[in-house]
Automatic annotation (TrEMBL):
It is found in: Cytoplasm; Nucleus. PANTHER family: EXOSOME COMPLEX COMPONENT, EXOSOME COMPLEX COMPONENT MTR3. The keyword Cytoplasm applies. Residues 43-167, 171-232 form the Exoribonuclease phosphorolytic domain. This is Exosome complex component RRP41-like protein isoform X1. It comes from Cinnamomum micranthum f. kanehirae. GO terms for biological process: nuclear mRNA surveillance; poly(A)-dependent snoRNA 3'-end processing; rRNA catabolic process; rRNA processing; U4 snRNA 3'-end processing.
Length: 256
């Protein structure tokens, strides 16, 4: 029997039918886990923003937060389509799409109707619609690379593009999100962190007016965690607003 066993051919089966695949452990499994990019839990990614990214548009902006890269183009105001009902105020038409190479899964680029609707809600309260009656402003957001916190970056970038287009607003809109990972709250999460989150908290606001234009919560949150997430986001939104204003000032001085 021993000789027969020694001469038996060796086989390799990477996934035996009787063997269960190990489930992926959450990234926050250990008490002393650190973020993959070495940021603190309450530290946002470096933000790079600039206006005038698309020459053919009325206004445009490019934003890069870590691996998340977004470009937004503004067209209009233009006369609303005849099929639309008469309105004394202007309209915003928001469209968010992803390139086919924006995610790790190739060929997944497409329009994102949910993001388009949320973008509209976040901006509508900040734009002075009465300043362009009977007309429509088109906002086209394109995600070049999806690296996490995509929607907050889209909203902030779109607000900057609207300002670049000269659209009158009560204030710029900044947006930041927080993920709940186990016992910890992490701000400006990456894609990997979002995939493991127990819940998400996103806020869009006008920092100078201290007004919230949109609030989205998913998952189960305690009252204390909501307060903590709110403070984190509002503080980050205020700092992001200063970055965006600096960007607009630099663009204005460059054209003088």
């Amino acid at each position: 029997m021993a000789g027969k066993s020694a001469s038996a051919p060796t086989t390799y089966n990477p996934s035996p039918p009787t063997q269960k695949k190990k489930q992926k452990q959450p990234i926050f499994q250990d008490d002393d886990w650190v973020r993959a990019d070495d940021r603190g839990f309450h530290q946002c990614r470096p933000a790079f923003m600039r206006t005038g990214a698309v020459n053919a548009a009325s206004g445009s902006a490019y934003a890069e937060f870590g691996n998340t890269k977004v470009i937004v183009s503004i067209f209009g105001p233009r006369e609303s389509k005849k099929a639309m009902m008469y309105s004394d105020v202007g309209r915003l038409n928001c469209s968010v799409s992803f390139t086919t190479f924006s995610t790790q899964t190739r060929g997944q680029g497409s329009d994102h109707k949910e993001f388009s609707s949320m973008l509209h809600k976040a901006l509508e309260g900040a734009v002075i619609l009465e300043s362009f009656p009977k007309t429509t402003v088109d906002i086209f957001a394109l995600v070049l690379e999806s690296g996490g916190s995509d929607l907050p970056v889209i909203i902030s970038c779109a607000s900057l593009a609207l300002a670049d287009a000269g659209i009158m607003m009560f204030d710029l809109v900044t947006s930041v999100s927080v993920s709940c990972l186990g016992k910890n709250l992490v701000i400006d999460p990456t894609s990997e962190e979002e995939s493991d989150q127990d819940g998400s908290f996103m806020i869009s606001c006008m920092p100078s007016r201290n007004e919230v234009t949109q609030l989205t919560i998913t998952g189960e949150w305690s009252t204390s965690k909501i307060h903590e997430a709110m403070e984190l986001c509002l503080d980050a939104c205020s700092k992001l607003g200063k970055i965006m204003r600096t960007c607009l000032k630099e663009a204005a001085s460059a054209t003088e």
